[in-house]
């Protein structure tokens, strides 16, 4: 995916394909590579962009979900985009929701997968045990239904993050911000098509969270993936892409 990475001003992002804009937003421990299969599939019909969210580079005092949504707004303005689809996983979904609250007229549709914004189980009260790589491996494995997806590369990336004090402080600030920015009272005003794709075995944003999103969002559709945890687009990419493709076709998006 590195061949598609661009740098323009404050923005680092992937930009591939032509067509209606589709912006992908990664989670707190996510990376651009989380969306490899989504990028490969949907860049055939859409202009797919994946901005690298500045999770660890914002001033600590302003680190939060709202600041990330403001960053997204600047990115969309920089690209000259009038209207876009937003797809967010975990914290990325929360950023998409806060952005939609602020700029509903700019959003043609929302795709949320394992999104925070209502409720999530945090990384853990004992976080961070920086010296203990096996602890980190167990926490990464919880992300997935099948722990085989907790690869050495993922564990090492996460281990590196939690051994950087500046990053840890920002992770904690983002986690607190996510709790403060509960979206329950805002969702009813989001009159835009919404696609919810959820793992039935997600323990971080459990199935009842998806059901609450379905109840509160006025134009939502919910799709389940069995034997799937908190990152459906990584654990079951073909099923995820098929569900999303069908929904986009149905909604003419």
Number of strands: 8
Please describe the biggest sheet, giving its number of strands, its sense, and whether it closes into a barrel. Answer: 8 strands, mixed
Give the averaged pLDDT, no decimals. 90
Q: How does CATH name the architecture?
A: 3-Layer(aba) Sandwich
Strand order of the largest sheet: 1-2-4-3-5-6-7-8
CATH-defined superfamily: Alpha/Beta hydrolase fold, catalytic domain
Count of distinct structural domains: 1
Q: What is the CATH level 1 assignment?
A: Alpha Beta
Predict the CATH topology: Rossmann fold
Report the radius of gyration as a whole number of Å. 17 Å
Polypeptide structure, described:
By secondary structure, the protein is α/β, with parallel strands linked by helices. The chain has a single domain, classed as 3-Layer(aba) Sandwich (Rossmann fold). The protein is 39% helix and 18% strand. It contains nine helices and eight strands. The chain has helices spanning 36-42, 65-79, 91-102, 133-141, 152-162, 165-180, 207-216, 232-235, 237-250; strands at 5-8, 11-16, 21-25, 47-51, 84-89, 107-113, 194-199, 220-225. Strands 1-2-4-3-5-6-7-8 form an eight-stranded mixed β-sheet, with helices on both faces. α1 (36-42) links the parallel β3 and β4. The chain is globular. Residues 123-128 have low confidence and may be disordered.
